[in-house]
Amino acid sequence: MDRIGRIRSEEAFSHKVTYENHELYDKGSWLSRPLKTVMDILPYFKKYDREIRILDLGCGVGRNAIAAARSIRCRIDCVDLLPAALKHLKSNARYYQVSSKINPILSSVDSYQIEKEKYDCILAISVLEHLGSRDTLLLKLHQIREGLTQGGVFILTMNTDIIEVTSDGVQVDPMFEINLKTEEAAKCCENMFRSGYKLIKKHSATQTYPVVRNSGTNKLTSSVLTYVFRKL
User: For residues 131 and 114, what is the distance between their CA atoms, to the nearest angstrom?
Assistant: First the structure.
């Protein structure tokens, strides 16, 4: 198995363990609540007199999509590589009575083609660091740039400067396809959205948390880069 395949296998295992042991919005995991940045932006769309089109890349079980569907009039294309994630997403959508607003799409983010000027909001929450390469990252950022309607909003969080350590204190290759320095990731994003977009939010914070791997539980430390851009 090559490096990308190994990483995606480990990530699939880690997510499966979380999905099987934690219900959406229950305390005790990163599924406990939607991202605050997403919730802060949603009121912006309440002024629209039509259904909002949202794309959630790497949607998982609906941590952010379900919250958005409950908050505003919208239709959400939810893209994820893992069948298990979409299975739980559909179940969660039924439980929260928003199935009509959720469109599950089984696809890698790498291969999903974003149509030009289709979406009013695009979410990429802790997913672009799992693209296959830096070149693919730049291509996807370009697709996102072109995929937003006028006034549309792009919300991004991305892990950078990632360090992964085993329970024995041994530093290992992080199970992330792309591991950029924070400054490099920031440059990629800001260059892509410099023209024709307004920077609404930029934030960086260090976080440390446990992650389950096939070999045991490791500790991850990363600098989480957050951006919100609005198309002018």
Answer: 15
Helices then strands, each counted (H, E), the chain: 6, 8
Q: Are 105 and 133 in contact (CB under 8 A)?
A: no
The C-alpha torsion from 164 through 130 and 86 to 108, rounded to 10°, is: -150
d(CA 59, CA 106): 10
User: Which residue segment(s) compose the domain that 153 sits in?
Assistant: 3-231
Q: Which of 144, 151, 146, 106 has the alpha carbon at shortest distance from 128?
A: 144
Cβ pair 164, 175 in contact under 8 A: yes
| Full-model pTM | 0.95
DSSP-derived letter for residue 28 is S
Distance CA 68, CA 58 (A): 15
Whether residue 25 has pLDDT greater than 80: yes
- For the chain, what is the domain count? 1
Residue range 178-221, pLDDT digits in tens: 999 999 999 999 999 999 999 999 999 999 989 889 888 999 99
Residue 87 and residue 19 in contact, taking contact as beta carbons nearer than 8 Å: no
DSSP per-residue letters across 65-114: HHHHHHHSSEEEEEEES-HHHHHHHHHHHHHTT-GGGEEEEE--TTTPPP
Residues 6 or more apart whose CB falls under 8 angstroms from that of 118 comprise: 53, 55, 147, 149
CATH number at residue 125: 3.40.50.150
pLDDT at 114 (0 to 100): 98
